[in-house]
């Protein structure tokens, strides 16, 4: 069974491709390499012994996408492709609306025209904004997103709700909390372009001496140690949730399905806790400085992921410390590659 994975050479996409291959799916990747590199394809092959079919083009090029659908018997899609830098989305909002929404709509058009179902969308906990109560479950009301990136995720969800209802399609919206870590082989991981936006790549780059100091944005939040709290989910656990969500859609006898799942650990960790856990797990220091709060950052977000456990039989299994070990191995692999 062929599954289209858009953005399949990216961070979460590449880990998911490995899990799909491990579960005997044939994978077709479309990725324009705007935020990934070709060697990831070789590494997927090294891990799985199988090389997925790969098309390097921008999904906004509808005519090329049509050719891919003509050439393969595609039975489902996991749609990772998107621009994801929150800060950049505030200065370049049109880039985000255009890339994230046009790419999505082009794939959905093919699904509609060819009567294909089974669509999984990478959503995010950013759709909740600063929720009033913790933990956040799927019924927590969505608030106006803080960034244009977050708005593209809310709009993507709305598009898919209408798509599922109007054309009787099976759709799963997966709201990730904060993915971290790397593949246990150290052959896949996050590849931040330029200065990392996310905490963990910033931590590893600081530990590796690429950045002088980690900037911690605010230590005066109303949390236990004053730093912001997030729910850090190991990327391989997250990848496995996609396979579980896909199998549920494929096995469902209903014509129309709209699943929504939070994917997190259910546990919040502060920025300082992550830094200390990284130092302890890897026995390396991470110099840091406290900076003023960053605009748009929320105080606390962690998931109630019980619904995914109940309906998908999935739950996060890997501890923060174990995840942070894998991320350091990946950083060392990158250092070796670059030297
Ligand atoms: N990493 C996170 O913290 C996080 C959290 C919540 C949601 N998400 C979402 O999960 C998805 C995957 O995130 P990621 O961290 O793996 O990002 P990533 O940037 O590593 O992967 C996205 C991939 O999509 C490709 N891509 C982007 N635009 C494309 C286009 N128009 N055509 C073809 N390929 C295109 C990029 O080259 C990249 O390989 C994204 O939709 C992101 O918004 C990520």
Q: What is the CATH architecture descriptor of the domain at 2-180 and 233-264 and 303-316?
A: 3-Layer(aba) Sandwich
Superfamily (CATH H level) name of the domain at 2-180 and 233-264 and 303-316: NAD(P)-binding Rossmann-like Domain
Globular, elongated, flat, extended or rod-shaped: what is the shape?
globular
Looking at CATH, which topology of the domain at 2-180 and 233-264 and 303-316 would you report? Rossmann fold
Count the beta strands: 13
Q: Summarize the amount of helix as a percent range.
A: 40-55%
- Beginning-to-end CA distance, first to last residue: 40 Å
Q: What does the model show?
A:
Its EC number is 5.1.3.2. This is UDP-glucose 4-epimerase. Homodimer. Its cofactor is NAD(+). Keywords: Carbohydrate metabolism, Isomerase, NAD. The protein is of the alpha/beta class. It has a domain at 2-180 and 233-264 and 303-316: Rossmann fold, CATH 3.40.50. It is built from eleven helices and 13 strands. It has helices spanning 11-22, 39-48, 62-71, 86-91, 93-114, 148-167, 199-207, 235-251, 271-282, 306-312, 320-338; strands at 2-6, 26-30, 53-55, 74-79, 119-124, 170-176, 178-180, 214-217, 229-230, 232-234, 257-263, 269-270, 288-291. The strands form four sheets. It has a seven-stranded parallel β-sheet with strand order 3-2-1-4-5-6-11, with helices on both faces. Helix 6 (148-167) links the parallel strand 5 (119-124) and strand 6 (170-176). Helix 1 (11-22) crosses helix 8 and helix 7 crosses helix 11. The structure holds nicotinamide-adenine-dinucleotide. The site of nicotinamide-adenine-dinucleotide (NAD) has 30 residues, from helix 1, helix 5, strand 5 and strand 7.
